[in-house]
Structures
1.
Amino acid sequence: GENVEQHPSTLSVQEGDSAVIKCTYSDSASNYFPWYKQELGKRPQLIIDIRSNVGEKKDQRIAVTLNKTAKHFSLHITETQPEDSAVYFCAASIGDSGYALNFGKGTSLLVTP
Amino acid sequence: GAVVSQHPSRVICKSGTSVKIECRSLDFQATTMFWYRQFPKKSLMLMATSNEGSKATYEQGVEKDKFLINHASLTLSTLTVTSAHPEDSSFYICSAISGRAPNNEQFFGPGTRLTVL
């Protein structure tokens, strides 16, 4: 199937710093790009998503940008806190159905006090 | 709202036996559910899309005769791992789409840890 590449695989930042996670996708028909946060032993939870007709979306300390031409999108977390520590997955819809998703391999974010 | 449950949470079985995992949407009707497999410290790999009342759509490389999916009602999908082998040991997680949530947000179940001896 189509691939979603995610970088970095691990990221360590100090509390208060910003964290950026980048993803690229190959399916030009993808039109929905959610980001999920998965804490250890828990289920993935949606934290923010963006559709292909929007270039940027922000929700408090979290923002996502999308460059559809370059087929890449990024997650930005500002003023990081220890509770932001988790694995973050990006995903891209398979085709334009907006239903099934291809996930990136995940980024393990550690925020140190 | 939009709670998804899975049962069992953990199962250990002998090689050659079959294991059934249930995925339920507790407070909404889910016409579409998804089954994923997650290896330790790895991503979620989509196995199949389960639609109520019709055959599941399997991703490339996933054996439909080994991983039987039944979506018998709008709140229940089951995944049966037939003739399980140690290499089938993994974390299986389902998700469901709620028509009430915007952007077809997928709500995930808590997952089932399968260990095949």
2.
Amino acid sequence: ETGVTQSPTHLIKTRGQQVTLRCSSQSGHNTVSWYQQALGQGPQFIFQYYREEENGRGNFPPRFSGLQFPNYSSELNVNALELDDSALYLCASSPAGGNYGYTFGSGTRLTVV
Amino acid sequence: GQQVMQIPQYQHVQEGEDFTTYCNSSTTLSNIQWYKQRPGGHPVFLIQLVKSGEVKKQKRLTFQFGEAKKNSSLHITATQTTDVGTYFCAGIPDGNKLVFGAGTILRVKS
């Protein structure tokens, strides 16, 4: 059983650019959530996908968007990058809508310069 | 803003001492989850509590969920150096939005 895998592990982008982060959920998990974690803070909920539909969203602007595919893998897209978007982006998957805890990936460290 | 508050922010204990972190929500939670994040790592799920007043144990770790389902605690007995990390509580106050506390950083002196 593989866990949650994220790619890339590190990324440097310029302000104004667009970025796509990828996540493969753990086998058997149909729910994927994305989080932003700034240094020294707790993960902040961006949004969640359940069976390819967004079923929850945090306080992030529309330039943060996502997708979930039929195999339950997911993408996080961020447009018009800002310096404050620099953070660790975590993907987490869960069976049955998140009611049994989440398995996190190792994250993508995004630096915006 | 942050609906799940966690205290203390930081605790430095001598190996063998006990440690407790507290979590409080402004609203009733359907469940509370606890995670541990080692330095440079990612959050790892520890446990989920669902019932009012529930108490669960995992070896030296004891988790409690308050009667009103608004607060929770994690207690570690006789800390070891392997307990080092940040402990997060997380709950769902509404919808499907899992809200994390800011975490308690635990450092253990050997």
